[in-house]
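Notes from the 1:1 (GR / supervisor)

We went over the backlog. Supervisor wanted to see one worked example end to end before approving the batch request, so GR pasted a single chain during the call. The sequence is below; no edits were made to it. Supervisor asked that the structure be written out right there so they could see what the output format looks like.
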Amino acid sequence: MDIFFEIHKNLPREGPGDSEATLKALSFVPELGVDGRILDIACGPGMQTMDLAENSSATIEALDTHEPFLKALEKKINDGGLRHRIRTRKHSMFNLDYEEESFDLIWSEGAIYIMGFEKGLRAWGKFLKPGGHMVVSEVSWLKKEISNEPRAFWGKHYPEIGTISKNIKIIEHSGYIPVAHFILPEEAWWKFYYTPMIKRIEELRMKHQGEPEWESTLDEELQEVELFRNYSSEYGYAFYIMKKIQ
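Structure output shown during the call:
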């Protein structure tokens, strides 16, 4: 059993975010009609997928590699009567096989770090139509001077983390025009992600008491939560909205 996925089982989201932030990011993208196509990369259980469907007329391809996430999204799709507009697919972000320049909008919340910010922008961009938009959220430094604890943590888990200004330069050098960016509010980390995760960790700690591998992993997850509680002024998730150069 993968302990990570057991911790994240049935969480509303697989990373920081909320509907308000998703819709704010979407507001910077020109309205897509019924012929519009959206690719939602690493969709997780699909809260943002449903927001995109309910606030646009486009069709959506939602992909993830974890079957339980896709099943959770399938239930949302069926309950919402959106089977005709959303298609799920079990597939990796590392080997996308779509026709080039076939999407009007590529969306990815809290997942591009898996590939790396610049690598993801360059790899995914070929599937975006000229003049199409890319929207991603990415953990970013919010200050120039960072305390030792968050620097050590992110240096271990994601050494590529950069400042917002650095990421904007990467956007410009990767074939895009920056359209907008904004920082997710702290509440977007807690309501649908950290708060339900803490509850899940407490349940699993009782269930797996005395099991060193479980206890170590659960402690690491809580360390991440406490790190954000103490240093949220120094790092956070930022949405980046960009337009592919025509």
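Supervisor's comment: Residues 130 and 246 are 4 Å apart (CA to CA).
Batch request approved.
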